[in-house]
Structures
1.
Amino acid sequence: MVVEIHVPLLPTPGLPDGSYPFPWIEEVEDFLSDLEDQGDVEVFDEGEEDGDVYVFFVTGAGEGDLLAVASRVATLPGVSAGTTAVITSDEAEDFGLGRHVAIPLPAL
């Protein structure tokens, strides 16, 4: 099982002129790398741009845990509203083919 985290590629508002418009990409990569170092999840593949979204990939845990990680990504500072998760497999032929889940998940 792989969970794709689809983040809309929207520039971070309020950045100085000439700044990289998507600093949250590195923030998310660092966050996921830290979780991987702790053994919580595995980063399945490098994140990549796909049309108007940037896609991150996590695996190595159960569905609930992977969706919790995706939910945490959706609430990181600078991450665009409208982030979604897609539950798929490592054999999917394209991004976004699977069950879509709205994130962040509601608090229990």
2.
Amino acid sequence: MYECSDCSGCSNKSKCIHGNNCKTPMEQRNKRLMVSKVMKQKREEDIERITTEYGTQLRMNRSIQAEGIFAVTKEDFGFRQYLYRGKKNVLAQRILVALAYNINKLHFKIQGNRTGTFLTEMSRIA
């Protein structure tokens, strides 16, 4: 836990210190910041995990795959609006579009003899 020693002369005190439920008057309060040790440890583990070569490859592939799906369904499939109303009908139509996309993707993987690969290889810059 971090606490400022004296916030009495600060012009941003009312913006910085939140909470109207405190019994201590605003003039007597100082800024407190609490950092969880568990959260800090988990963050360090995550940073270590995503900066490895495999983690970098996963992040690159996710950005490629997520954006590409929207582009293909809009441009190639011509899917720009739902034809039916209601949650059930929209869900059914979205599932059909997703199935069509997956079948199309599988077809091109089979044609390109890439059925065992799941990730795009990263290009090496020497």
